[in-house]
Design a protein that fits this description.
The chain is α+β, with helices and mostly antiparallel strands. The chain has 10 helices and 18 strands. Strand 17 and strand 18 form a beta hairpin. The structure holds zinc ion.
Length: 473
């Protein structure tokens, strides 16, 4: 009996890798395209297709079963119409759709990239978005919004060799069975080369100092690629500071002082094209608190502060943002300002594994983590926490005395979180996803909730571990 099961399992795994050999080469196809639209329309057009030197993904897991992300791309073998690869992702475009600029009727284009193993024969590429409502408490299903056929034997560009030097920060094994993170830098001039390597090491260490990454260090490879900018530092449009940098990252993205992203997508993917990677992290050589993270796109994080007491906040930001970009985690906080309007729509269950509008114990996505005697929703000192809101809103993150003024408030917040009754349990705690009422998180505190060095909670940890497994098992 046991032997038979083992035989079947072996057979399945062999047939999956055979699938890889049947349909793919050992390199990657990179498809660059333009994603254009308004607050409620969107269209796609292909820009350029490349062959990249490496495929770093897992040859046994070609079909994405994680069901994360706002979008999904799928690759079909054109001859047999067989699904041979898929991957979920999110985009800057979808966030832009919830900003004032979009709501005021504007149209905008973003450059985007998807990557998959390089196909041997003609394929059909489709992009789908979550647009099918399937009842309360359920996440939306994907509906196809774009498709195009691609012939791998025509109009494919090859890698261009660059002078970018790469450095192994951690090497644990074959990229096909490890999570491969590539770290690049923006706003590091020729004089900042040494700082870049120090920063890359710092943030790799801060990731592995946080549970559950701490438990799985041996499943990661981390490589740093030196990307040199003309100037030191990055754009701060609100201060009229503009720099010439290689990746074009900027503060004030979507008008938020601390939000750091880049619209220069092509330069990011060009910078990493010569190394094997599954995930991109961008360190920005600047001193204003900030960062960003979008699922299966990239993480950004600042790397400087003139207040040594506050250096830990950089580690907080890096790991928090990596939670977004690597495992599709949602923000669990709800008490600071964001630039979105109705980022999460009422009565639409978020696809993020760690936030919910569902209050039904039987169908709740993290129901298996909840003890029978834990009340749903779960009481916590929310009124007390919210009563600090006035003081919180008076703080100016860009003021010189920000950290000084924030300290007593931070201590009171931590006191509330640490003395709430269900602090060590998974439950249904109201306040999450930028919404105070009707949106819930699994734990009182988590790296996705408070600005502190707290670990990921049990539900986020499971999502992270499932993603690690997908790349490594
Ligand atoms: Zn966040």
């Amino acid at each position: 009996m046991h032997k038979n099961i083992l035989l079947i399992l072996t057979f399945i795994s062999v047939s999956f890798s055979q699938n890889f050999e049947t349909y793919f080469l050992n390199t990657s196809m990179r498809v660059d395209y333009f994603h254009t639209g308004t607050k409620d329309t969107e269209s796609f057009s292909i820009d350029k297709i490349y062959e990249e030197k490496f495929f770093a993904g897992n040859k046994n897991n070609l079909i994405d079963n994680l069901n994360l992300g706002e979008y999904l791309f799928q690759i079909f073998d054109a001859k047999t119409n067989t699904l041979i690869f898929s991957k979920g992702f999110s985009s800057i475009f979808q966030e832009w759709q919830t900003t004032d600029e979009a709501i005021n009727g504007n149209e905008k284009t973003f450059h985007e990239t998807i990557r998959f193993p390089f196909p041997k024969d003609k394929i059909l590429l489709t992009i789908s978005r979550r647009n099918k409502f399937v009842g309360d408490g359920n996440i939306m299903q994907f509906g196809e919004i774009f498709s195009t056929s691609i012939d791998p034997n025509s109009n494919v560009s090859k890698n261009i060799e660059t002078k970018n030097q790469s450095f192994e920060i951690f090497k644990n094994g074959n990229p096909n069975s490890k999570v491969d993170i590539v770290i690049i830098g923006d706003g590091y001039s020729n004089l900042d080369k040494e700082k870049f390597l120090q920063d890359a090491n710092r943030f790799a260490n801060s990731l592995f100092a946080t549970y559950p990454f701490s438990k799985h260090k041996d499943k990661f490879n981390i490589i740093a690629v030196e990307t040199i900018s003309e100037n030191s530092g990055i754009d701060k449009p609100d201060k009229e500071i503009f720099k010439n940098t290689i990746l074009g990252t900027t503060y004030n993205f979507f008008g938020s002082a601390r939000y750091v992203l880049s619209e220069n997508n092509k330069s990011i993917y060009d910078a990493v094209q010569l190394v094997p990677y599954d995930a991109i992290a961008i360190l920005v050589n600047d001193d204003r608190y900030g960062g960003g993270g979008i699922y299966n796109l990239y993480t950004t994080c600042y790397t400087k502060t003139d207040n040594p007491e506050m250096e830990w906040q950089m580690d907080y930001v890096f790991v928090h943002e990596f939670g977004h970009s690597f495992a599709g985690l949602g923000d669990e906080y709800y008490s600071s300002q964001v630039s979105y309007n109705d980022f999460y729509k009422k009565n639409v269950e978020p696809w993020e594994p760690n936030i919910t509008q569902n209050t039904n114990r039987q169908t709740l996505k993290w129901k298996n983590f909840i003890n029978d005697d834990t009340p749903i929703p779960t009481l916590w000192k929310k009124n007390e926490y919210d009563s600090l809101g006035k003081e919180r809103s008076k703080l100016n993150r860009l003021a010189n005395d920000y950290y000084e003024k924030r300290k007593p408030l931070y201590e009171r917040e931590q006191e509330i979180l640490k003395t709430s009754k269900y602090k060590n349990e998974v439950g249904l705690f109201e306040g999450a996803g930028y919404i105070s009422n009707g949106m819930y998180r699994p734990s009182i505190d988590c790296r996705m909730f408070s600005v502190s060095l707290v670990d990921f909670d049990a539900v986020c940890s499971k999502a992270i571990e499932e993603t690690i497994d997908f790349y490594t098992k």
